[in-house]
Amino acid sequence: MVVLTGETLTILQAKQVLDEDAFVSASLDSLKRVEKSREAVDRIVDQKKVVYGITTGFGKFSDVLIDSQDVEALQWNLIHSHACGVGDPFPEVVSRAMVLLRANALLKGFSGVRPVVIETLLELLNAHIHPVIPQQGSLGASGDLAPLSHLALVVMGEGEVFYKGQKMPAIDALNKEGIQPVTLKAKEGLALINGTQAMTAMGVVNYMEAEQLAYQVDAVASLTLEGLQGIEEAFDHRVHEVRGYRQQCEVAKRIRHMISGSQLTTKQGELRVQDAYSLRCIPQVHGASWQALDYVKEKLEIEMNAATDNPLIFDEGESVISGGNFHGQPIAFAMDFMKIAVAELANISERRIERLVNPQLNDLPAFLSPVPGLQSGAMIMQYCAASLVSENKTLAHPASVDSIPSSANQEDHVSMGTIGSRHAHQIIQNVRRVVAIELICALQAVEYRGVDRMASFTRAIYEEVRQLIPSITQDRVFSKDIEKAASWLKDVNWPSFMKKHLSMNQTKGEFK
Q: 2,3-didehydroalanine (Ser) (modified residue): where (predicted)?
């Protein structure tokens, strides 16, 4: 079970909720803070104070006062008018993450909602009712207004949801689970949609996928080292320690252990003096991507526990302050950084693919073909990898360098962080397919070298993937192989695989 406090949610706990269906509850202390904050909102309404978003309109309408009898209508109008998302829905796991993060943020006790709003969000999570939330339409400031409005509709019993593998009206799923829709009171609609939970939820899912992929690309590169008879000394710990980057040292250490015992890798000067950069510089390049991912993780875990709506209620209502915590710039930068870092894993992977298939760069059969000339072998797989890498270069353009004013220029600088997070997700899918192509090519190369001479760890990968993808003995529709390999990379329980075959603590690059 994961207990939310508004302060302590981690990516590991999020993974337990998103991937392992852990039950979610709220701590008693956090609910007490929520009650105190709500009492302050009720006093503001009763005393007819002028406070943004509680007794006024929104955005450019902040100077329009709202009569106390209309505060509920104000929230209803807000959610319906702001539910302007378009395009394909976010993946269901991202929608689940949004509900989790929104509940955790409200539990901080600065937003002024009633406990029932948070309890309803937790009921949705535990019943696996996930709002259908269109991906496009957020500027990444003023909160992820459009996406979170579609989430708020479900709390109200409206909109659509994913439930038990089907898309259906929210009210039908709520009725099946005995969950009562909520009529939003003063400030509650604004508190639900004024935040960065769309970009952050997408970012959390991105990070979980990118982290696994970054470990896997080390393993696939180890297979390629064997297929190309790479030189071991490039991974000597002394080389990396004298530079001083922890992540670089960790990658080198993983590679050393992954190829330990291999009879296919070579010593310096045995076949050649040094390898090409795509082999020799694996720790330097992969390690630099890990540095970026570590930065991303740090920012995500801060944002997961941040109060990001507006206004915020302090000192039991004595201070209600309008600020800008809804601005997504920190996550926008993190997502752009992630895009570049993950795309680079594919850039160097594609160069290793080229070295595996190009007969001018190795002594293997041309394009790993069983009958070069008559059969093309892996020739066009490299084309596919090159295309994906090129597409990533377009997607990796920073979304955060753009801004466009909105709300009659009241909201005159925005982050575009949600666009950045969506593009990061696309890049991750592309990178996984590039790594899948390297995996297929590397498996073929080690077959030519001798499977019985492989390291025990790489041999374990070989044996597992060969159950899905047979050796290339005849040209076939390789698209199916690429997708199978990519699915294996995505779905395999990598920590368990590593523990079984390598006995390592992968989070620190250490070995037991």
A: 142
Q: Report the amino acid identity of residue 426.
A: Q
Give the architecture-level CATH label for domain 204-404+416-503: Up-down Bundle (1.20)
Read off the pTM: 0.94
Which are the catalytic amino acids? 52
Beta-carbon contacts of 164 under 8 Å, excluding residues fewer than 6 positions away, are 128
Kind plus residue range of the DSSP H or E element containing 96:
helix 92-106
Q: What is the largest CA-CA distance in the chain?
A: 85
CB-based contacts of 236, cutoff 8 Å, min separation 6: 252
- CA dist 399 and 410 (Å) reads 21
Q: pLDDT tens digits, residue range 251-267?
A: 999 999 999 999 999 99
Burial 277-291 (b: 16+ CB within 10 A, else e): ebbbbbbbbbbbbbe
The interaxial angle of helices 115-126 and 145-155, nearest 10 deg, is 90
CATH class of 2-195: mainly alpha
| CA 94 to each of CA 131, 197, 303: distance values in angstroms, whole numbers, following the listed order | 10, 10, 16
Structure-block tokens of residue 505:
């603590």
pLDDT tens profile 155-189: 999 999 999 999 999 999 999 999 999 999 989 99
Q: Which residues contact 408 (CB under 8 A, 6 or more apart)?
A: 59, 60
Q: Could you state, in order of their start, the residue ranges of all structural domains in the chain?
A: 2-195, 204-404+416-503
